[in-house]
Specification:
Elements: E1 2-3, H1 5-8, E2 13-14, E3 29-32, E4 42-46, E5 58-60, E6 69-73, E7 75-76, E8 90-96, E9 99-107, E10 110-113, H2 121-132, E11 137-139, E12 156-165, E13 171-174, H3 197-207, E14 211-216, H4 229-238, E15 245-248, E16 254-255, E17 261-262, H5 264-273, E18 278-281, H6 283-294, H7 304-312, E19 317-321, E20 323-328, E21 339-340, E22 351-358, E23 363-368, H8 369-379, E24 383-386, H9 400-409, E25 414-416, H10 423-432, E26 437-440, H11 442-445, H12 451-460
Parallel strand pairs: 1-10, 2-3, 12-14, 12-26, 14-15, 15-18, 18-19, 19-24, 24-25, 25-26
Antiparallel strand pairs: 3-7, 4-6, 5-11, 8-9, 9-10, 12-13, 16-17, 20-22, 21-22, 22-23
Bound molecules: ligand 1PR.
Length: 478
């Protein structure tokens, strides 16, 4: 069985590396997705549809046409009807934009999937179980006409957990208002404690969250790198949460408590080995982008983004942008790109730009969100987590103007974040912008809404979502 690049290696060649041949067990060539009208990498939940490819109502390794599976890749094998089938392969496909590509292929005891079954919730675990049991062919229980089933990429809903130690030293999920996580109360402003990270991640997984993001907002500066409490959080979460996990906070070259230098790549490697699928870089990306522009847009190959992306692929590198609105009276008052905004400033200003910040929003820098987005895309970042300090914790909805401005500037996927207060806000950001995913925090943590309610609202508005499926019993050993 091969997964993702494990599928790709069995084909003859790939545009990704034209001088290195594939193993050639399966006939076909990988092409990069066309990014002229859609984000690349292709990240998210898509189909692996056997209906139409195999004889009617028969599937392989428990793939279901109505299920969704987690994909993350830039290269794919375009599907040509009948070609692989002529060699005895059974094929499942997915649709991204107007491109139909291979999602899974099997023959005899070989099964390869472009998607990640280990990150595809119960639907993916069922595939792994079927492979281990040699259960290669079955009737599809819910075979319907493929055209009746929502094919293609779903709208991704992400739950985000800001994690830090509270004043008693316990690891807690917290949540700020405009990044201030302390209670405004007479008790002296304790760090808000909304629950335990592993338990909350599991709860959101059960509710149908498509991904979980942990932001380690204080980076545990006094803890040796190898003992960072977030490693244990990831190990425990990944044993029972089978969707992609992102970890952010403190991903940068650093000096350990014993004086040893530790590279950002080594820190990322520790996180990946503990169960993370992506790392998210905040402050360090801002400094790297400043250097990139100062050096006339030249790349050094040494930044955290470049080194991690080169080692693990760009889909493993997220950049978290923490911008704040700066209102100006006229466009000539700043060198940064401004937008005309429908939400005017304190003195009635109609123009604003988005200033990037570092150190958890505490320090503004002379670089705007579009500059940062384009710089980190050039460095090999695969996805943007686009926060907005003005909206954070406000429950007033996403900053649609910011999301659309950044979306227009880049080809990589964008996750809209900050401001979600009710399910309708998710509908709004998906309908009014071209965002690829949307993230919520406080509304879930405070128990006001569940991820399932958000998805029900999206579905009611005709937007495609993934719904969680019945649990599969798993035993994690070791
Ligand atoms: O700079 O690489 O060490 O990364 C630090 C990371 O921690 C960054 O991703 C930064 O966004 C995050 N961070 C730092 N301080 C805070 C804070 O709140 N004091 N949290 C913080 C940022 C923002 C969102 C939040 C959304 C949605 N949290 O992720 O979850 O705004 O909230 P809402 O739905 O409740 O409105 P580095």
């Amino acid at each position: 069985m091969g997964i993702c690049v494990g599928l790709q290696a069995l084909f003859e060649s790939s545009e990704e590396s034209s001088t290195t041949p594939g193993l050639g067990l399966i006939k076909g060539h990988l092409k990069r997705f066309d990014d002229s009208s859609k984000a690349v990498p292709h990240i998210g939940w898509n189909s692996a549809n056997t209906v139409g490819q195999t004889s009617s109502n028969v599937s392989f390794y428990c793939l279901r046409p109505s299920s969704k599976y987690y994909y993350v890749h830039s290269y794919a094998v375009p599907y040509t009807p009948g070609e692989l089938e002529a060699d005895g392969w059974k094929v499942a496909t997915a649709q991204y934009g107007d491109e139909e590509f291979i999602g899974a292929v099997c023959r005899d005891n070989v099964l390869v999937t472009q998607f990640h079954p280990e990150k595809s919730g119960a639907a993916g675990l069922r595939v792994l179980q079927a492979f281990l049991e040699g259960n290669s062919e079955q009737q599809i229980p819910d075979a319907r006409n493929a055209t009746e089933i929502g094919q293609g990429l779903t709208r991704r809903v992400i739950a985000c957990l800001d994690v830090r130690a509270n004043d008693a030293g316990d690891l807690v999920v917290t949540k700020g208002d405009q990044y201030d996580v302390r209670e405004a109360d007479a008790a002296g402003g304790a760090v808000r404690n909304l629950g335990k990270p592993v338990d909350m991640a599991r709860r959101y997984y059960e509710q149908g969250a498509d991904e979980i993001t942990f932001l380690n907002i204080t980076s545990f500066r006094n803890s040796p790198v190898a003992d960072t409490p977030m490693l244990e959080v990831l190990r425990r979460t990944s044993a029972s949460v089978f969707v992609p996990l992102t970890i952010g906070g403190g991903i940068r070259d650093t000096v350990d408590t014993d004086g040893t230098k530790v590279s950002a790549l080594s820190i990322a490697s520790l996180y990946f080995a503990s169960g993370a699928d992506k790392v998210s870089i905040g402050s360090d990306a801002v400094y790297a982008a400043e250097e990139y522009f100062a050096a006339d847009r030249s790349l050094t190959g040494r930044t955290a983004i470049e080194t991690i992306s080169a080692a693990y692929g760009k889909q493993a590198v997220v950049v978290s942008i923490d911008p704040r609105r700066v209102y100006v009276a006229s466009a000539s008052a700043t060198s940064h790109a401004t937008i005309e905004t429908s939400i005017s400033g304190p003195s009635g200003e109609r123009l604003c730009w988005y200033q990037c910040t570092v150190r958890g929003g505490r320090e503004g820098r002379d670089i705007d969100a579009v500059q940062l987005a384009t710089a980190v895309e050039a460095m090999g970042c695969g996805e943007l987590l686009l926060n907005c300090i003005d909206r954070d914790g406000s429950n007033s909805g996403f900053d649609l103007e910011l999301v659309e401005m950044v979306k227009r500037a880049v080809k990589i996927p964008v996750i809209a974040s900050s401001g979600a207060g009710k399910p309708e806000h998710f509908v709004e950001v998906f309908e009014k912008t071209s965002t690829d995913a949307a993230l919520g925090a406080g509304m879930f943590h405070r128990g006001e809404w569940t991820v399932a309610q958000v998805k029900a609202e999206l579905m009611g508005r005709g937007l495609l979502v993934r719904l969680p499926e019945e649990e599969v019993e798993v035993q994690v050993e070791g």
